Amino acid sequence: MGILQLFLVLCIFFASSVVGFGVDPALRISVFDELRLGDGFDGLTQVQGFHSETRAFHFQGSSREVRASAEVSAQMVKKLKGKNEFTVLATVKQDRLNSGVILSVHQSDHRFLELESSGQRSEVRLHYRTKNQQDHTEVFPYSLADDQWHKVSVAVSASHVILHVDCNRIYERVVEAPSMDIPEDTSFWLGQRNAAHGFFKGVMQDVEVLVMPQGYISQCPDLNRTCPTCNDFHGLVQKIMELQDILAKTSSKLSRAEEKMNGLDGCYCERTCSVKGVIYREDEGWTDGCKNCTCTNGTVHCEAISCPPPQCPAGTAPAYIKGACCKECQPVCLFGGRELVEGDQRAVRDSSGRCLLFECRDKSMHRVVPTEPCPELNCPESEQIALSNRCCKVCRGHDFCSEGHGCMEHSDCVNLEAGDCCVCKDGFRPLRDDNAYCDDIDECAEGKHYCRENTMCVNTPGSFMCICHTGYIRIDDYSCTEHDECLSGLHNCDENALCFNMVGGHSCSCKPGYTGNGTVCKAMCDGLCQNGGTCVSPNKCVCQQGFTGSRCETDIDECADGFVECDSKSTCVNLPGWYHCECRDGYHDNGLFSANGESCVDINECKTGRNTCANDTVCFNLEGGYDCRCPHGHNCTGDCIHDNKVKHSGQIWVLDNDRCSVCSCQQGQVDCWPLPCPPVDCEFTVVPEGECCPRCVTDPCQADTIRNDITKTCTDEHNISRFSGSSWIKHGTECTLCQCKNGHICCSVDPMCL
Q1: pTM tops 0.70, yes or no
Q2: 555-573 confidence digits (pLDDT tens)
Q3: Is 431 helix (H, G, I), strand (E, B) or coil?
Q4: Which value, to the nearest 10 degrees, does the dihedral of the CA atoms of residues 86, 91, 94, 100 take?
Q5: In the listed set 173, 196, 219, which residue is the last one of a domain according to the structure?
Q6: Contact (CB, 8 A) for 88 and 171
Q7: Which residues pair with 93 in a beta bridge?
Q8: Model confidence pLDDT, tens digit, residues 338-384
Q9: Which long-range contacts (CB under 8 A, 24 or more apart) does 548-551 make?
Q10: Structural domain boundaries, residue 180
């Protein structure tokens, strides 16, 4: 059969096999049909959908109850019960920033299967129960709530979960396997979690549950590419023809190359080795320090020299000599009860303190007369060190290595207190006990490397390299992978995070100065921002009005710093983060409440009756006060006694022990009221001790007041979800009271129990 005939036959075969993707009705749960939407559910309106082939409904309001009857729920649960492979499908157009549930199968607080989309957090959440009967939530950072149409599918196959959005594979994860051991009295809700929470707002269409793996193919048939289309086959035929042409040309080139190679059979090319500028011929050997080396086929092969213990006769001792690897027997001298070998020197001092230097030569100690005086030292005497092998002292920290040493290649000279020693470089091991000669460690052969998947370890002098296999790209120094999600941008790392490509995926780590899980990173300020300040970048706080400083730790005294100029009829009173132009005694605000006190006007205490003049006195109004004039010299005062102090009638003052309250004396009576506080716009607030106005805090457990968000729940010690604002007694205790504060659990001992 010719290629063209084969092409036609396969085109007909594939065209007939991929016409449609059928699903057994026994494996399909069409939620709209099962719930009979359109039969009078409040809050639902049938509208135009993404396409016109099926119905679409607009979900709105928060007084609806779209749930299946007990009989219908039992039928749907029967299809799901005990299954470990299923797919949830939906076509949605969710209102911008709405957070709501698409589908929920739950009993009480246990969610066996729930798909939720959070526009506030830009997340898709899959809630389910694990096989060990624990509640689990798998979070996929992705925003569906953008007022646009999206095809969504979540396919579960045992512990394998795949999220598709608009026929694109967004996430693929391995999770704890769900348990579909669903009780018969389970509730089945659409567009909400229950009658009070999780209301989805927007349009939904084609909401289905397929009890099968890879159900997303029903939503996106083009993803079923296990069999080629006719167009695919045509392309394959074209590629085969191109490869045949390339093969013919390559065969011709190989034939010509073989002819040339045959002409080289009579040639002999000797391969040599170049070491430290010296050329060695094939099979030539040489000694390199403590290694015997040979040139073999152009490659240097070395083996460490094995030094047998020397058998030294009397009067000699083994010692290293310059240029030799192994110890050799050397004549010894006895000096001060110790053996010294040839060339060793020792310094002694006589009774007069004079230093004498001796050297071991020919088995006896000989006096060495110095030819030059000792150099002058530029350090104090306390920093001068006397050495055992020379008469001249040196300063502490003297560079002995610069005077010459025996440390060879791959060994470093290290200065000590009174001399020097040799230390092998990293990646090398000593060939002698004095570390003067060192040999490379083959980390690859000895398994002392960190090369991971898809790499090959290659030894290098003092280290190793991890070489990527052909067709793989580097992640880091030790790992390689087929794809670089970080480089392609197909990752979910925060803009303030670093993306690290890994085998089979990637990881995110917040940049220095930021904290979080990598997908969400927030700036981190050392010591935290005080007084409600916001950390906007590493160690940078934006302070709330009225505070300053690098940590917003300083209250701005608007009164003392000249930021505020109050009217002459008022006085400036500084408050934490705020100020107040308070009307002076004898004045009150006319109702305009101007910030600088211009609205303070004189109080006509006589006309308003705000005076304590007795019936036998006459009231005279004054600017900022009044006067009770007593005829016939009677005592007519109407002052107040407050905290053992006299306050005139009409006088207004701030309490010494409570700077947040204002008091006034009126007709002998004292009245006090709290000062107004500036508004705060934050989730958690607390009123610090000694202050009256609330401040923003980041720790919810320190907060007096919280702005509850019922979408942020807590999981208690029984794995029960608690809504924000709820409280309970911790299991196993009688006095530990716990409270859910916007996703954070705060526990404390209830003082009423003590």
Answers
A1: no
A2: 888 888 777 888 889 998 8
A3: coil
A4: -20
A5: 219
A6: no
A7: 149, 203
A8: 889 988 989 888 888 888 899 998 888 998 888 888 899 999 989 99
A9: 551/525, 551/527
A10: 28-219
